[in-house]
Each structure stands twice: as structure tokens, then as C-alpha cells.
Design goal:
By secondary structure, the protein is mostly helical. 77% of the residues lie in helices and 0% in strands.
């Protein structure tokens, strides 16, 4: 047997053990992974725009930002931590501006309505995040 066959067999064994809720999430993930992205770019300009649109903080940075925000709500930040929080917030604000500009340009290139394009990116992002939050 090939390694791919072994992996498929193991995947089927694991799938058979899942609850209905988890099985639904796994099927959604498999469907998502098996179909080409709605956002498949046909040129390097679109690829660059999509990269800007989908840009996120690294997981460790996101965790740190959430920690700083939470502690900031309770007034527990040092001056240095407050500056760190401001730096994160400034970066995110700049990225929001750049994301909107990239969305506008991609909508223009694809001759699409901006709100429709944005909804597509948001729905794909929500699907991905909802699937990664499911405890397997």
C-alpha cells in the first residue's frame, strides 16, 4: 500500500468516530479544501491585493494584543505596555486603510461591487476560523 492510501484509510477511520457536529465541520473543511478558491488570482497584481486584504497579525502577536487590550480595560498596563498597545492599534489601523484600498482596487479589476467582494472575503474568513475553532 502507498502512503497516500494509508493516510486516506486513517482519515476514514477517524471520520467514522466523529460526532455529527464535528462531522459536519470536517465535511465543510474538506469541501473548502477541495474546491479552488473564489479568490484565485489570475495575475500577480491580484495576488498582491489579496495578500493585503487577508493580512493578519501572527498568532503570538494577536494573543499579546488581546492580553494588552484586556489588561488595559482594567487599567493594569504599565507605560511601556500602553505604548506597545498603541503600536499594535496603529499598525492595525494602517492595515485597515490598506485593506480597503486593496479591496477597492480588486473590485475595480474584477468589475465587482465592493460590498459583494468584501462579503465574499469575510464569509471565507469566517468559514476558515469557525472550522479551526472546532475541537477535533
Amino acid at each position: 500500500m502507498t502512503r497516500a492510501t494509508d493516510i486516506r484509510r486513517r482519515a476514514i477511520e477517524l471520520i467514522e468516530q466523529l460526532s455529527e457536529e464535528r462531522l459536519t465541520a470536517v465535511v465543510q473543511l474538506l469541501e473548502f479544501l477541495s474546491e479552488p478558491s473564489k479568490f484565485a488570482a489570475s495575475n500577480p497584481i491580484e495576488l498582491a491585493l489579496i495578500e493585503v486584504i487577508q493580512r493578519r497579525l501572527a498568532p503570538n502577536e494577536q494573543k499579546r494584543l488581546e492580553e494588552l487590550r484586556k489588561r488595559g480595560e482594567w487599567g493594569e498596563l504599565t507605560d511601556m505596555e500602553h505604548e506597545e498597545l498603541i503600536t499594535y492599534e496603529d499598525q492595525l489601523e494602517q492595515w485597515r486603510v490598506e485593506r480597503l484600498e486593496a479591496l477597492m482596487e480588486l473590485a475595480r479589476l474584477r468589475n465587482m461591487d465592493l460590498l459583494t467582494l468584501n462579503r465574499q472575503f469575510v464569509s471565507e474568513s469566517q468559514l476558515f476560523h469557525s472550522l479551526t475553532c472546532v475541537a477535533f
